[in-house]
């Protein structure tokens, strides 16, 4: 591409503009994705079975929703340390390898809803201190959330855990989220046991921090 630029230099300025446009948008945009601006790669609904190749290193918004991606290599995000928004909604992910998010300290928004996750292990988001919104809803087999799953999420304001297969959750998973403002827990098969009683008590104590309408469904406990 650089040699392409040199080759164009003797030509009119319009060609140079074209060349820089190619550098910024065309050449570096992975097929079959769209790159509406220099920091956004939009591969939504393209039928992808795996992550696209050749994503620009300076990407900030990576939109991958509505594909069939079933695996993220643990080192995938090492190269994309500027990533602010990662949308993996509605894919086929069944697990998050430990360390996957350990280099994404600028990540603010992460959507893993509508996947096939079964558990959220301890320390998954340990280095994600900038994360503000985390969507983990609608994973029909997600039944286990470690007590330390959300450790490190010191900026997290919104956590979506609705429509999963959660029958219980330790209060400790939530009580460490000091910035939490919105929590969604409805449409889970909660079981009334000691864990639930503790969770219920914590929710009662934190009514002021949580929007009433959003989590009242958690009270349906049969
Ligand atoms: C999920 O993605 C598939 C494939 O793109 C699409 O057909 C389906 O409507 C999407 N489902 C939701 C709930 O968005
Ligand atoms: C989701 O997980 C279930 C059970 O682990 C499995 O039977 C199913 O094939 C998975 N679906 C996809 C789309 O990966």
TrEMBL record:
Q: Name one GO cellular component term.
A: voltage-gated potassium channel complex
- UniProt keyword terms in alphabetical order: Cell membrane, Disulfide bond, Ion channel, Ion transport, Leucine-rich repeat, Membrane, Repeat, Signal, Transmembrane, Transmembrane helix, Transport
Which Gene3D superfamilies does the protein's record reference? Ribonuclease Inhibitor
Matching entries from PROSITE patterns are given as: LRR (PS51450)
Bilayer topology: Single-pass membrane protein
Q: What would you give as a GO molecular function for this chain, any one?
A: transmembrane transporter binding
Name of a matching Pfam family:
LRR_8
Q: Which residues form the signal peptide?
A: 1-26
Stretches assigned to the LRRNT domain: 28-61
Record localization = Cell membrane
Keyword Nucleus applies = no
According to its UniProt record, where is this protein mainly located? membrane
Task: Note the PANTHER family from the entry.
Answer: GH08155P, LEUCINE-RICH REPEAT-CONTAINING PROTEIN 38
Write the protein's name. Answer: Leucine-rich repeat-containing protein 38
* Organism from which the protein derives: Acipenser ruthenus
Taxonomy, top ranks, is: Eukaryota, Metazoa, Chordata, Craniata, Vertebrata
